[in-house]
Design brief:
Blueprint (H helix, E strand, L loop, with lengths): L5 H11 L4 H11 L9 H17 L4 H16 L16 E6 L2 E8 L2 E4 L2 E3 L2 H9 L5 H4 L8
Antiparallel strand pairs: 1-2, 2-3, 3-4
Helix pairs in contact: 1-3, 2-3
Amino acid sequence: MRRTSKNTQQAEIARLSGLGLRELREIWQRRVGSPPQHASTELTRRWLSWELQAQLRGGLDAATRRRLSQLAKSLRTNPTAEPIARRGPTPGSVLMREWNGVTHRVLVLDEGFSWNSERYSSLSDVAFRITGTRWSGPRFFGLRQGSS
């Protein structure tokens, strides 16, 4: 995988708009690996653009990859199944946990969590601040099996 600067990458992606399917597949082969064989020119162009950006900036986070894997497995098992609902607490919910005699309350936000008037991107960050050790945040707050 070749390293590129952000400007070089932006120029390369802009150049994709003028290429046909054969040229897009050639670039895909050089930069990503085996190209999709049954995608339209436009889909291949968009997909290749995403792949090139992911190489420079990083791809999907682990939680998103897991969620997509769950959805794919569900659809393979039952192609007419409705998508599995989003997991996790609903924004506006308050999670409570007692730790060392102190009750801690965490507000679930649209993007992250609030505890002691500070925002956190994950429950695991909150659990770490409370306990001083690494915990699975959902497990610490009783949202996953095996919680204490």
